Amino acid sequence: MEVKNIKIKNMKTEDFNDNEYLEKYVEELKKGGVNVAVGVLDDLINWGRSNSVWPLTFATSCCGIEFMCVGAARTDFARFGWEVTRNSPRQADVVFVAGTIVHKMAPVLKRLYDQMAEPKYVLAVGSCAISGGPFKDSYHVVRGVNEVIPVDVYVPGCPPRPDAMLYGMMQMQRKMKLENFFKLPNKPTIPDTGKSEGENK
Amino acid sequence: MEKIKKLILSIVPDAVAEEAQYPTFTVDASKIRSVAEKLKEKGFDYLICLTGMDYGDSLGCIYHISSSTDKTSVIVLKTSTSDRQNPAIPSVHDIWASANLYEREVYDFFGITFIDHPDMRRLFLRQDWNGYPFRKDYDANPELNPVPMENQTIAEMENMPSITLKSDGTVIKKENALFEKGDYVVNIGPQHPATHGVLHLRVSLDGEIIKKVDPNFGYIHRGIEKMCESMTYPQMLHLTDRLDYLSGTMNRHAMCLCVEKAMGLEVPQRAQYVRCIFDELTRIASHLLGWGCMCMDMGSITAFIYGMRDREKIMDIFEETGGGRLMVNYSVIGGLAEDVHPNFVNRVKEFIPYMRKMIKEYHILFTGNPIAKGRMKDIGFLSKETAVSLGVTGPSGRASGFACDVRKIEPYAAYDKVQFEEVIREKGGTFDRYIIRLDEIEQSLRIIEQLIDKLPDDGFRAKVPAIIKLPAGEYYQRVENARGDFGVYIKSDGGKNPYRVKFRSPCMTLISALDPLCQKEKIADLIMIGASLDYVIPCADR
Questions:
Q1: φ/ψ (deg, to 5) at A128
Q2: What pLDDT is stored for residue A30 in this prediction?
Q3: By Cβ atoms counted within 10 A, which residue in B211, B275, B313, B480 is the most buried?
Q4: CATH number of the domain that A118 lies in?
């Protein structure tokens, strides 16, 4: 089973020869059976969404400079429709965790993530954000940003080259295109505490 | 130096004088203030760095002091206290303004309280942190200090404890308030696009006029100095690159020089020349980014794109020879990791005329722009006295008339073989700090031009033992990085790991200059004044 045709310019679907788990996702999604009309609408919305992603300007250290390079003239991410970096988390779709996250920063990052509107995505850029990297033995460094917030794509490197960041972003575009937009979210189950709603507040 | 020795012995007769790398005097903690006052009177007005130290049985401080007039003379003062429960040393924050933050740093790491210091908050760690991490008996159990999920409270950020000692020996503890009652306080950062990193500024306002700026550090404090204590010397090099990533090559150079000096290692001339060229290329890249970001903070995105475009040319040169772009990881102890790429000389030679042409374009594009001129005119003045007292060095210090270029004061590598001008401006305004970076790029090009044709042919690396052990002692090396006077202090006990490593960060002093610079300015100019100082937060936080 192939991943459904991913419409990314200049990059064929076969070129993404890793991350096979995404194909499994598609398989699972298709099991439920999607209405043709809704499926096409899904594709349309996801096409629009994945080509107008607004990243949050969030950089703690060295990887932030390479992130600036991705935005500058040579590896221009405007080609992918990503160029509108937002300074407010309320307007951002994706956060690039570019750099080390330390104990003092962890609650700040958590709050930023919470303030972003759904659907939201996280890229862990660089070895510090992935695992603590060269600083993992330090007393003040969080060993991987996934201790604080969930991560969608990991981009390795110290710091990653701009091309590597672009590749990571395209992998995330792929993930975005898999989103089943018209599937209603599962109803949240409220744990039975034995109290009425008013008391719960 | 004999004069200084006599002077110190006249104040403290039992001071111990040593002739190490710099003249060193050990004085009792109770006398440190009177010695400091006398030294200041004699012209020693520039406190380079203040290092905390755990000697095992006692805790102490090391002061590296220099002068803004006689720049080559550096003296070292040492003091210690044997009370490990409640260590206290008199504060010198009113003698040298830079001691304000340094002493807070020492308190944070070692728990030494400074008597009469008005603001004994922790500098980097949260106020609720358990223990003092740089003490040798620190318990590093992660359960004691788990990753917090809640932010600090305002009260924790604002209450400044202080200790005063009365003449009869009684201790008075006080809590001072950071802001006056009813002040309108605006938080800028830690996640803010224009603080150039994760700096947290708390600014009190009167209308839109700034009354006070209180920088909060530590949002990227990675504990590099402590990590170095458990590493071998070649391993430490990688962390120096990641301190101030925009001048990584120079920081690494400083560490290499410090270890080589301690080992008594002779580095081949070729390595020294190439290191200098790399340093200058890094400086150009850093100034280009600094210039671009400053212009972007004033609203000119074009300038940023131009700066980044030309920076990529340097990144290409680095990549071809060193393999890395931002982190070149090129200098190693004893020389260079590899010889330069065969294309290196040609590409650098092509780059020099290109860059000269581009600087002209920058001036046309932005320097002469009436809007830019209007924004930078007559704001953010830093006097020479304040710059020296705060230890503001590098381009920002030189814009205020403080001639502090370490390449001239203590020439290292090949800098004594080249002609270049130390660019100095007098007024110390925002425009001076802007234009001085572009002028320095030209001087850097001049240095590269003189070196690139004369690369000697004596190998790129000296023979280095497999396990590097430094003889017991203390070593200090200063290097001019893109932001100022960068220093590496190593105390070795003869083993393969250092006993203590301290990096003198030029960025921390730059940030401390924000408060005097911004007072009575409008809040809209705060971002631009900050950008004109061009600080890098991971260097300040370490």
A1: -65, -45
A2: 61
A3: B480
A4: 3.40.50.12280
Q: What is d(CA A48, CA B75) in angstroms, rounded to the nearest whole number?
A: 65
Residue B354: the pLDDT is 92
Q: What pLDDT was estimated at residue A93?
A: 87
Q: Is residue A193 part of a domain?
A: no
Decide which of A47 and B399 is more confident.
Answer: B399
Mark yes or no for CB contact B309/A74 under 8 Å: yes
Q: How far is A109 from chain B (nearest CA, A)?
A: 9
Query: Which domains, and CATH codes, for chain B?
Result: 2-178 (3.30.460.80), 224-541 (1.10.645.10)
Enumerate residues 6+ apart whose C-beta is below 8 A from A186: none
Residues B104 and B92: their CA atoms lie apart, in Å, by 12
Are A108 and B191 a contacting pair at CB < 8 A?
A: yes
**pTM summary value:** 0.87
* 3 state DSSP class of A71: helix
- Alpha-carbon Rg for chain A, nearest whole angstrom, is 19
Position B10 pLDDT exceeds 50: yes
Segment of A1-10, B169-178, B207-216 carrying the highest mean pLDDT? B207-216
Amino acid code (one letter) for B394: G
Confidence at A34, pLDDT banded by 50, 70, 90: low
Amino acid at B468: I
* ipTM of predicted assembly, 2 dp: 0.84
Given this model, what pLDDT does residue A7 score?
61
The answer on pLDDT for A192 being more than 60 is no
| B115 CB neighbour count, 10 Å cutoff | 17
Looking at beta carbons, which residues of chain A come within 8 Å of B315?
69
Minimal CA–CA distance to B531: which of B188, B194, B189?
B194
Interface contact A140-B309, CB threshold 8 A: no
Q: Do residues B81 and B29 make contact, with C-beta atoms less than 8 angstroms apart?
A: yes
Cα distance between residue B46 and residue B269, in whole Å = 33
- A117: contact with B, CB 8 A cutoff: no
Which candidate from B133, B140, B327 shows the least CB-CB separation from A159? Answer: B327
Please indicate, yes or no, if residue A91 is contained in any of the structural domains: yes
pLDDT at B165 over 80: no
More confident of the two residues A78 and A194: A78
Look at A60 and B289 and tell me if their CB atoms are within 8 Å: no
With CA atoms as reference, report the closest residue to A70 among B344, B315, B248: B315
